[in-house]
Amino acid sequence: MTRLAAYAAQLDALASRERMRRRRAPAGLDFTSNDYLGLAASARLRAAVADALARGVPVGAGGSRLLRGNHPEHERLEAEAAAFFGAESSLLFGSGYAANAAVFATLPQRGDLVVHDEWVHASVHDGLRLGRAERAAFRHNDPDDARRAIGGWRARGGRGRVWIAVESLYSMDGDRAPLAALAALADAQDGFLVVDEAHATGVFGPDGRGLASALEGRENVVALHTGGKALGVGGAWVNAPRLLVEFLVNRARPFVFATAPPPIVAAALREALTILRQEPQRREQLRALVAHAEARLGGLPGAAPAGTQILPLLVGEDGAAVRLASALAERGFDVRAIRPPTVPEGTARLRISLNLNVSDTDVDALATALRELDPRSA
After folding, report:
1. Percent of the chain with pLDDT over 70
2. Does domain 57-278 have CATH number 3.40.640.10?
3. Does residue 229 carry a catalytic annotation?
4. What CATH topology corresponds to 22-41+280-377?
5. Which of 66, 185, 244, 314 is within CB 3.0–4.6 Å of 240 for a Cys-Cys bond?
6. Which tens digits make up the pLDDT trace of 92-101?
7. Three-class secondary structure assignment of the chain
8. What is the arithmetic mean of pLDDT over 122-134?
9. Catalytic (active site) residue 125
């Protein structure tokens, strides 16, 4: 046991600070998942998978895309995704994490600078650690601070390319990035803008093409779209100029050395894109649910609605957030406590995720429960 003692001590320390992570099966009303449009269990996706299996589409790829794992379903999806989002080219990955890691480990070169929002996804940070570019954070949603960071780097002798990395919609606060100002900054620097659309894909923009839909197709814009949130499936793809996609195919280790995503997943994602075009009522229903939730939950202590499907309820102290989430679970509500380091110190919260697996009536019941359980409502 002595060889495991160091690991036990670290886990004990997490537990003592109310920061121990544990797997938990879904139970109760879904105010946690990112299945924003309620597609994960939809009849259309189930039928698409059944049809693909009947057509002989394999469940597994059997190898990397550069060996025997490349399947026509992968290529069909990439072609349809590029056309749908207005990009020149698209490349499928097994997850959003892998896609972000690949982009930031591969595209920015030695001598370049990646300036990123301080709250950008952990996968971006991990990709940067694998890459060769310099990096600097700027204050959340503050293009002027990004400009200052770039100016400081230039003043210290930086002469490479600038890459600006942001999320279009932030997963813990639900607020949106100032994409127009950031795109203008990228243009002024002759640099690139990389937009992670993970929580906006399917929900915002024409046909659900995301908050960066007006920017896609530009030579200096790279966009990442995940298939495991609003699209209800899995995987992710990077949309970019064809030359950058080919560079990823040849140099991105998370692409070159990974077994290809299951072809059956690619088939399901093609159907998900079709649903986005054909069923705009899902986005309309979600917008109505968000408006109702903000009216019912927005006045609660700590609520910070941002007009999107992610509504944080700031609690502050880690243990208090955990206890409130547990009390809600006992009443049949699945709302998870989010604690540091996922969010800044002192901002532990309940992340209320609004999706079409719940109704206005469910939101009303959650509001009633929070008023009864949260001591700040007394």
Report:
1. 99
2. yes
3. yes
4. Aspartate Aminotransferase, domain 1 (3.90.1150)
5. 244
6. 999 999 999 9
7. CHHHHHHHHHHHHHHHCCCCCCCCCCCCEECCCCCCCCCCCCHHHHHHHHHHHHCCCCCCCCCECCCCCCCHHHHHHHHHHHHHHCCCEEEEECCHHHHHHHHHHHCCCCCCEEEEECCCCHHHHHHHHHCCCEEEEECCCCHHHHHHHHHHHHHCCCCCCEEEEEECECCCCCCECCHHHHHHHHHHCCCEEEEECCCCCCCCCHHHCCCCCCCCCCCCEEEEEECCCCCCCCCEEEEECHHHHHHHHHHCHHHHCCECCCHHHHHHHHHHHHHHHHCCHHHHHHHHHHHHHHHHHCCCCCECCCCCCEEEEEEECHHHHHHHHHHHHHCCEECEEECCCCCCCCCEEEEEECCCCCCHHHHHHHHHHHHHHCHHHC
8. 95
9. no
